Amino acid sequence: MKLTKAHLVHAIAETNGLPRKKATETVETLLEIMKKTLASGEDVLISGFGKFCVKRKSERKGRNPATGGDMILAPRRVVTFKYSGILRDRINSG
Known about the structure:
By secondary structure, the chain is of the alpha+beta class. It has helices at residues 5-16, 20-39, 85-92; strands spanning 44-46, 50-57, 60-63, 70-73, 76-83. The strands form two sheets. Strands 1-2-5 form a three-stranded antiparallel sheet.
């Protein structure tokens, strides 16, 4: 099963006894803060969970899979995730 925004909203509403509308606002606000922070180039650290990092990828040579032709890929920023030791231990304790 994958965890969706709807699942998060439902779990927050159930766990905290909040109305669904308030739980939706909470999830949307959290995600918006994370998006703005990452877009500005800063990392997002959630203690006990992990760290979302913004990495720069420089221009590089690539290959078009459809045509097989060489092409130059533009420089860009990507988001990576490094999990915490606590999360790693929890995943592997089964």
